[in-house]
Amino acid sequence: MRLIDLSSPVDASLWEPDPVEHHVLTPREGALHMSEEMRAHFGVDLDPDDLPDGEFLSLDRLTLTTHTGTHVDAPSHYGSRAGYGDGVPRHIDRMPLDWFLRPGMVLDLTDASTGTIGADRLEKEFARIGRRPDPLDIVLLHTGAQRHQGTQRYFTDFAGLDGPALHLLLDLGVRVVGTDAFSLDAPFGDIIARYRASGDRDVLWPAHMIGRDREYCQIERLAHLEDLPGPYGFRVACFPVKIAGAGAGWTRAVALVDE
């Protein structure tokens, strides 16, 4: 089996609208920290200099959102109410694990310009590759947005799905849709410009708003989709981190290719 990393990093050196703060305690600082914590919380005294080399373990502290790096959006991210089930959208820790280990399909949408991708474009790609996704397949959108990763353009120059395109995927039984872009919707500036021109609320983040009435998850900020061996014939593992009550969780998304 060959494994293909489909994840983008959490990297404090890259440009983010919500900057990542990454503080590292060295092994020596970790020894001092451990000694202080053991004394304060458990009444145990240990001189850090008694440790080999006077060092213990390094420790990383990060401040970031659950939408930094490759992550899975839960239904609760889309709004406080759901138009299905008991009316309460599920958080990321309540999602069924079997959604996140499934056959994958990647759609080549690298010709899309900044803005929206419609259902007709998806149908054209299904015709090109000779099949549609099966129910519960994980569909990945290769838009080429990764080329701007680490820059401000990553957050402004990409293509996302319009409402009919997402409905098409959900009608086919897809429950996890991924993209290499910052968002499954079009960029903020594009959405707001189209809303101001039309006054049509349906253009306001449809890929997210539809999630209030149809339960599904998004994987955003994928990477290396060009490394996949073909449009299908692989599985995707993208289990989200189990954060209680959260609207999203980070994932180390990986493609599994049998050889």
UniProtKB/TrEMBL annotation:
GO terms for molecular function: arylformamidase activity. GO terms for biological process: L-tryptophan catabolic process to kynurenine. This is Cyclase. The lineage of its organism: Bacteria, Bacillati, Actinomycetota, Actinomycetes, Kitasatosporales.
